[in-house]
Amino acid sequence: MDPQDFLDVDRELSDEERAIRDAVADFSAAELMPHVADWFDAGTIPDPRGLARDLGKLGVFGMHLTGYGCAGTSAVSYGLACRELEAVDSGLRSFVSVQGSLAMTAIHRYGTDAQKQEWLPRMATGEVLGCFALTEHDSGSDPGSMRTRARRDGDDWVLDGTKMWITNGSVADVAVVWAGTGEGIRGFLVPCSTPGFTANVVHRKLSLRASITAELVLDGVRLPAGALLPGAEGLKAPLSCLSEARYGIVWGVAGAARSCLLASVEYAKTREQFGRPIGAFQLTQRKLADMLVDVNHAMMTALRVGRLKDAGRAHHSQVSFGKLANVRAAQRVAATARGVHGANGITLEYPVMRHMVNLETVATYEGTEEVHALTLGRALTGLDAFR
């Protein structure tokens, strides 16, 4: 029996979906896995632009979008790509997700044709990197309380404020910045070379270390009228982009969990104590069995949400269901895997501790566990408990 596909979910995939999955898996094994422990240890991606170009050639940036140089694949194909990337490291899936599901989706969904033509083809190839600036120091789960403001000055807009925890922020060429205006929350395309725009790298992270995170400071950033995303009006616009990113997480964490399970099965068969492999002990087998169930449940959940999405029937609360359930499952698997590996589990020689601490971040970004639980509670009762 195949532990990573115990219920033969692979049979439910199309030939095209398998081909995309295998291409990303092969790239990940050859180009990412040999280096990721060192990147995590160093707390950065040493050559993000080189990585972006390679990922652009692979076709994963905005691959679920149509036109403007984007591949136009199915949601399931995109999810499978996220799974294979996060099986290596959550930071690498986040690198792709922020570019495609957040920055590119915002432009694709809410921009003018001219804005799309200017940015999307180059972002799809990895020539241009983008970031998505919504979160602030005091505005996380409640983005409507953001303090960043945009005011009109003649035909221009002037932006002031600070954004925090922005993935790719210090290496991006363009930032999708959300700001309050007299007309509500609006989105702006901010070239990162604009005077008054500063990106400060966040150091000393204990999680998602193979990723680049920044604080963005906007001090009198002056933009032309054409920088406004005209279709993005109100908080629903950035939240719809977040739902796209959450969908990638539903698949991605299934990959992280799978990596932990496979490492644990191999370790349990080769690590000997008391004269036999630890996998021969009942307690270890129970741990492996629980991990197996969580991994395969997560994959089935991801595939179901993906099929709903491809059919145009996925509600944002179903994406919340997937994120809540699959992140919880992945955290259980990673913690159990760390225990199976004993003292070796805390080293970078094995992937389990790296996945375990990464999942601590994944559990809180793109909506905390509590936010998704309340989203499901509202879907069940029709009553809003957020306020």
UniProtKB/TrEMBL annotation:
Keywords: FAD, Flavoprotein, Oxidoreductase, Transit peptide. SUPFAM superfamilies: Acyl-CoA dehydrogenase C-terminal domain-like, Acyl-CoA dehydrogenase NM domain-like. This is glutaryl-CoA dehydrogenase (ETF). Gene3D superfamilies: Acyl-CoA dehydrogenase/oxidase, N-terminal domain (1.10.540.10), Butyryl-CoA Dehydrogenase, subunit A, domain 2 (2.40.110.10), Butyryl-CoA Dehydrogenase, subunit A, domain 3 (1.20.140.10). Coiled coil: none annotated. It catalyses: glutaryl-CoA + oxidized [electron-transfer flavoprotein] + 2 H(+) = (2E)-butenoyl-CoA + reduced [electron-transfer flavoprotein] + CO2. InterPro entries: Acyl-CoA_DH_CS, Acyl-CoA_Oxase/DH_mid-dom, Acyl-CoA_Oxase/DH_mid-dom_sf, AcylCo_DH-like_C, AcylCo_DH/oxidase_C, AcylCoA_DH/ox_N, AcylCoA_DH/ox_N_sf, AcylCoA_DH/oxidase_NM_dom_sf. Its cofactor is FAD. Residues 14-127 form the Acyl-CoA dehydrogenase/oxidase N-terminal domain. Residues 233-380 form the Acyl-CoA dehydrogenase/oxidase C-terminal domain. The keyword Aminoacyl-tRNA synthetase does not apply. One of its GO terms (biological process) is fatty-acyl-CoA biosynthetic process. GO terms for molecular function: fatty-acyl-CoA binding; flavin adenine dinucleotide binding; glutaryl-CoA dehydrogenase activity. Pfam families: Acyl-CoA_dh_1, Acyl-CoA_dh_M, Acyl-CoA_dh_N. Belongs to the acyl-CoA dehydrogenase family. It is an enzyme of class 1 (oxidoreductase). Residues 131-221 form the Acyl-CoA oxidase/dehydrogenase middle domain. Pathway: Amino-acid metabolism; tryptophan metabolism; Amino-acid metabolism; lysine degradation. Its EC number is 1.3.8.6.
